Amino acid sequence: MNWDAIFEFFKTLDENGGWFFDFLSFLVAGTLAVIVLIYFYRLARGDIDWFGRKIIDQESIEETEKIKMELQEQLTVVKSENAQYTQVIQEQSKKLTEIQNLFTELDSKYDDETYFTSQVMYAAQEVAAAIAATNEFEGNRDDTFDYLLDYLINSLKGFREKNPRIVIHVQHSKSTEKLSHYVHSSGHSPRVKEYEPIIDGSAAGRCWRTNKIYYIPDTEQDSIEYERIELVTKQYRSLLCIPIHAGPDKSKRIGVMSLTGREVHAYEQIEIERAVLFSYLLYPLIYTDLKNRGALHG
Amino acid sequence: MDDFEHLSQNVRHELSRLYRNGEITKKQLMEQMKNGWFDHERMKIREKFLKWIKKDTPSQD
Description:
The complex is a heterodimer. By secondary structure, chain A is of the alpha+beta class. Helix content of chain A is about 55%, strand content about 10%. Chain A is rod-shaped, with a radius of gyration of 52 Å. Chain B is mostly helical. The interface of A and B includes residues 96, 111, 115, 147 and 151 of A.
């Protein structure tokens, strides 16, 4: 920096009447006056003390702290509420899923029930048709029962796993100790016609004797009344025997319907009940047929 | 009430045969065998439920 040039410049200004220094003096004085005024104004307001230090409002700090704490408390409450609501939403969502699953299960069962009802309708229709057309029925007895028993078999759950087969036995025409074959469902070997269950010592015989349902969930278990026949390739583990009767009066029983299942514990309660319903559906047809053939032994 | 057709004996026996041979599923057998019979109330309830679920379940889009 060239100081000489600066001094020379100020010297020139002074020599030209000194107006610049007068102006500078007024400017400095004015600025100082404004600063002093601002100082007194802020002092009067209480913003600063005599030494110009900024005064901190203690009340304001306390108020601010109080608001801050309140806000923090509110934040904690909100967070807690939020966690609760989230939990409620999760629980509701879980319940909704459970409801959906329950509905699906219920709908599936309802579907099954309406299907079964349709099968009962068609079975009843075929029974009525068979009774109404005796001659035709006599010529197609096996086929008619094949179809009728199919309605029940197709209503059972897990048809392929259970491989259900039905045989109906009625009172023997020549023996009081045995029952005789009446009809059977498809899938049975023709040899099933030869089997005549003994009344004392077979499952069908017990059912006949007692006139009550006899369900054996596992034919391999001990303490069951069941006729074990040698040289028979057994294809079932469960056996359900249902009396074909018109109530508790034994004189009105006409046969026994035996339903086998490949698996152990093959049949649920609802399936047993459906089989019972079918036994009642078949009663009029079997009764009429036996009566027409003179094979009803009271 | 809707008028549902009774299936003829031949159709019923054929459906049963197809099911036995594994050519149709149990579900198909049930639907075709019912042919609407006894099923209309179930379908109405089912429709109601599906509408309700659709309304109450947030869109995955």
